[in-house]
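#structure-requests
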Amino acid sequence: VQLQASGGGLVQPGGSLRLSCAASGSISSVNDMGWYRQAPGNERELVAVIKRGGTTNYADSVKGRFTLSRDNAKNTVYLQMNSLKPEDTAVYYCNADLLVFRWKNYWGQGTQVTVSS
């Protein structure tokens, strides 16, 4: 069982990136899925989370700029990031609650997002 993240990279301020995270393995069900980020010297913080039914919650710092969505059939979550700012620079981590033999919280590998001119 793993969460495979992709889509990070280098982008100029005002640009856009789309992150994807797919859960794979012997998964019976997926509940909350989301993204966290950690900048150098900072603690890991919530970016956005989406429930299975589609309800979303965003950090105030990304509201109006980031959009989180999911495809339940593919066990995949997407983070569309628009109007990126240098302060969005961080390692972004996918997170999900997965039912394997029991419910457990899983982390994906980080993907670097750098916003710089």
